[in-house]
Design a protein that fits this description.
One of its GO terms (biological process) is gluconeogenesis. Helix content is 30%, strand content 24%. It contains eight helices and 17 strands. The strands form four sheets. The protein has an eight-stranded mixed beta sheet with strand order 4-3-5-6-7-8-9-10, sandwiched between helices. The protein has a five-stranded mixed beta sheet with strand order 12-11-13-17-15, with helices on both faces. Helix 1 runs antiparallel to helix 2, helix 2 packs antiparallel against helix 3 and helix 5 crosses helix 8. The longest helix is centred in the N-terminal third of the chain and has 23 residues. Bound molecules: 2,5-anhydro-1,6-di-O-phosphono-D-glucitol and manganese (II) ion (2 copies). The site of 2,5-anhydro-1,6-di-O-phosphono-D-glucitol (AHG) has 13 residues, from strand 5.
Amino acid sequence: MAKPISLTRYLVEQQRVDGHIPGDLRLLLEVVARACKRISQAVNKGALGGVLGSADSENVQGEVQKKLDIIANEVLIEANEWGGHLAAMASEEMDSIYLVPNRYPQGEYLLLFDPLDGSSNIDVNVSIGTIFSVLKKPEGSPGVTEQDFLQAGAQQVAAGYCVYGPQTTLVLTVGDGVAMFTLDREQGSFVLTQENVRIPEDTKEFAINMSNMRHWDEPVKRYIDECLQGKEGPRGKDFNMRWIASMVADVHRILTRGGVFMYPWDKREPNKPGKLRLMYEANPMSWLVEQAGGAATNGKQRILDIQPQQLHERVSVILGSKNEVERVTSYHSTL
Ligand code: AHG
Ligand code: MN
Ligand code: MN
């Protein structure tokens, strides 16, 4: 039987053999993985570790923070600030960017994260996760400013997530396909369990929060309505629905067996482009999905081509199996 391949070995091979990543990026990804292990331990302890419940504070987007939102954010910062691989970090849970303190060496990468995705699922013991995205600091600019982070998703040099579910699984791309690693708790390391992840181009499964139906725009209504008509409708097949309310878990299912995920713009707050955050959620997930042969748009354009205007910008998201994403996107231009 072939020997298990650890994340460390996988990354060394990406660096040395295939030349896909520089040494500093390898270090960065190892450190992020180590932080995810610590978060996974905290998640696992649950009530025994006193990590459940709210923290009596709000983040910059006005959302009530859970204790684990804050713990995960701190773990990621502490793990990443001293290694010399980063220039700065940005997080869904912090108002502004976090500069690497002067006492540590400065690197050339920018790390962005949603430290704890699926916060509403923490206390009910349903899968949650961490999502991350890595950019390169633009060359020639001294220091780091928020402006340096405002790069389109197509500029990412690495992206991934870690899902804390029945298993803890780290999913990663450095632009050479998608690989999945399962946490071996006895060994304390992530082990490669799937390479070249591919999303089937067709699917019979959609994920959307149906309770928002009355607020949707016509193209989304049309798409879901056609799915709901099943065999008797224009699609000629029955569809299944899933909604976990943790984007990590929904995207993980799609990377595993296909499907389409949508959190579209809706009429509740017409000036808000959507619920999900471009830099911490949509960009890393869209790149992973594209790297696995899927597609990701905001209904009008490829998410990875959107030029961000603000760090905490929100965006409408349609991602997953290619043919379904293309169909929903085409409804946006014909209606
Ligand atoms: P977060 O916990 O980081 O704020 O993200 C939650 C997001 C996303 O993970 C999920 O798909 C969506 O919010 C769920 O929203 P609803 O509760 O509106 O269904
Ligand atoms: Mn999130
Ligand atoms: Mn979050």
